[in-house]
């Protein structure tokens, strides 16, 4: 039931617009915020306002950042010969957490989805070519999602950059660490067998 | 007696969408129940055994639990992953066009084994031997036929006379061919060549492998594409989004293949 107190109902309405938050959860959160210390509320409100005002898109890699160019693009220690293509800004953090990739990124901001009308012009695909033509990049890593749309995007980019003669690689597919072979699906297990490595 | 709580169903994924943090809602084309929508919990989590079987164009057997709202998929087994189709951009795009066309032209809960068999056979053929105009046009025509919207190709739909081997017309609003005498009275009819009419009649009576043996020239292929596109658009009352993607991809592929 919606609160009859307008300020609470207003917060609940705003929160219920967030993904995964239903009206009941929104109302619970609104009451939680009401009972929170003033300092916490102040910090939350300020950080939300700052989110929109200070976060920009990096003009080089199209990652979201608070400075343009972003900290990765300006880092002199990064390997500029290796460029990793990801679908969303949020895909960079898990790759960075692995500590295995020291190159630079390019964020597409989505994937090709013909049935939803999303084509290359709706993504940051065209912006990729000047970066590759500069001649600094020698390896392109396609880290799109292992979905039909992600694969289609990867294939489209591979086709687009083919004349440049770069080394194009794609993230490996296989069994997740800690998984039980018995419960692996046929497609992943099949790919793991096909792409098995020397040991 | 009430229906059992759980059931198994064979299907092909024609559409899916993300729900919440990790879940997915999937629309399956099934032979027994037509289109079925079901939720798969945690299907987007890495390592989920459900995930790979719930991608668009996946053909599998799904174990579902009936719920008051949308049913729940709890197990999935892949029956066909179409590896060659998925490894090629053009074939994948054709597959996605087929999925969108099926999704737009069928309704939930209406059994359609013929539509399911048609989709599966065409996807298998694309996986086996690639996709060209003939495959797409054949699929469109046979889908219209299966759904009861097939253009009438024997007699004039305006006056009822037998068609002569001359240039006639095809009217999407009247649902078939109009003879040369009635053409002027049917403003939406477009000229239909003798060869195009022969090909359409031939496709209605043969399987896809046989249909592919007929090599249509570029002009005939364009004519068939335009005629069937008008017919399909009239039936669906809307344009398919993936069609423009196919046209763009075809142009780009032609440009890159030029010496």
How would you explain this protein's 3D organization?
The complex is a heterodimer of chains A (199) and B (259). With 199 residues, chain A is of the alpha/beta class. Chain A folds into two domains: 7-36, Orthogonal Bundle (Helicase, Ruva Protein, domain 3); 78-199, Dna Topoisomerase Vi A Subunit, Chain: A, domain 2, CATH 3.40.1360. Chain A has eight helices and six strands; from the N terminus they run H-H-H-E-E-H-E-H-E-H-E-H-E-H. Chain A has helices at 6-15, 23-34, 38-54, 71-74, 92-98, 128-133, 148-161, 186-194; strands at 56-57, 64-65, 79-86, 103-107, 139-142, 167-170. In chain A, the strands form two sheets. A four-stranded parallel beta sheet of chain A has the order 4-3-5-6, covered by helices on one side. In chain A, strand 1 and strand 2 (64-65) form a beta hairpin. Chain A is globular and about 65 Å long. Chain A starts with 5 loop residues before the first helix and ends in a 5-residue tail after the last helix. Chain B is of the alpha+beta class and 259 residues long. Chain B folds into two domains: 6-82, Beta Barrel (OB fold (Dihydrolipoamide Acetyltransferase, E2P)), CATH 2.40.50.140; 132-257, Up-down Bundle (de novo design (two linked rop proteins)), CATH 1.20.1440. Chain B is built from eight helices and eight strands, in the order βββββααααβββαααα. A five-stranded mixed β-barrel of chain B has the order 1-2-3-5-4. In chain B, strands 7-6-8 form a three-stranded antiparallel beta sheet. In chain B, strand 2 (23-30) and strand 3 (34-40) form a beta hairpin. In chain B, helix 2 packs antiparallel against helix 8, helix 3 (113-129) packs antiparallel against helix 4 (133-147) and helix 4 (133-147) packs parallel to helix 7. The longest helix of chain B has 19 residues, at 218-236. Chain B starts with 5 loop residues before the first strand and ends with a helix. The model of chain B has no long low-confidence stretch (mean pLDDT 91). Classes of the chains: A alpha/beta (199), B alpha+beta (259).
